[in-house]
Amino acid sequence: MAEEIAALRWDEPSDGGAPVVVLLDQTRLPADEVELVCADVPALVRAIQTLAVRGAPLLGIAGAYGVALAAVRGDDVDQAADVLAAARPTAVNLAYGVRKAQGAFRAAVEAGDGGDGAAGAALAEARRLHADDARASARMAEHGLRLLGELVPRGGYRVLTHCNTGALVSGGGGTAFAVALAAHRSGELRQLWVDETRPLLQGARLTAYEAGRAGMPHTLLTDNAAGSLFANGQVDAVVLGADRIAADGSVANKVGTYPLAVLARYHRVPFLVVAPTTTVDFSTPDGSAIEVEQRAGGEVTEFSVPHAAGSGPGQAAVAYAVAPAGTQAYNPAFDVTPPELVTALVTERGVASPVTGDSLAELVVR
Hints:
The protein is of the alpha/beta class. The strands form 4 sheets. It has a 7-stranded mixed beta sheet, sandwiched between helices. A 4-stranded mixed beta sheet has the order 11-8-9-14, covered by helices on one side. A 3-stranded antiparallel beta sheet has the order 1-2-3. Strand 5 (189-195), helix 7 and strand 6 form a beta-alpha-beta unit.
């Protein structure tokens, strides 16, 4: 079995140096496994915005550790929290983790703890969120595998996934990828279809990387080839994650998710969303209220290779133009899938099906 991936850790140097947040730089995968050291909040914000660290659950953990980092350094914690929470607006877990650690810090201050005590409270909260997410990953894998068995009773699952939802996005084994991995370990995964996921290729670079490490049978395809797989009866279930789930069950996920939901509905294939309950945002009433991050057009008009194998950490990305100069690009990072196209939502607390405001509320209360 491959060694577990550690996507993020809090590090306190043995020489007595200041604590830092250490990330596995996902922009350098799969060519190089390189750690990125964030000594302050601005460095962590840059890592979040450049996708060196990404994925809804892990962003929440990173945000919490960022608050702890600001507290340990003696920086303005409230200001740091606001900057961190706004670094990527669509992923609700980021703000959730930030506010939890900020709340622990404030409570400690109000209780009369000094700077060190309050910083310790923020760090303890970040570590708690980290551990909670690892446990949630394991439970989601169990619930998801059981649901696959009910929906595809003949076994030998051929699962289509999108973007990256494994250990690289989590404090544990991940969300949707953890379900596929559980199926593999039980001998029931026949094929993992991996969308390359444009424009940043999280599927090609990261999901294929994790699947290869785990010895899973997997095949990469371009996003627009998925329709032919459905047409040929090669998909038993679509299993993917979420960055925000609105109160009505609308799902914001990496752009390209909504077309898969439409294809799945037409071809009568189960469409499963796997996410922790912390991704459910009851303050967002429906899909139209979800703020969708718009990214730079150059990610579409150019093909960028962040780092070549063996390159130095400071080496700039190499970009190749794929469209004429001056071409305008539409580049949303996410799209929104309405709840009626979602067969079931798998969480650490169980499964919601059908996905409605009431079923979500019942699941979270449970």
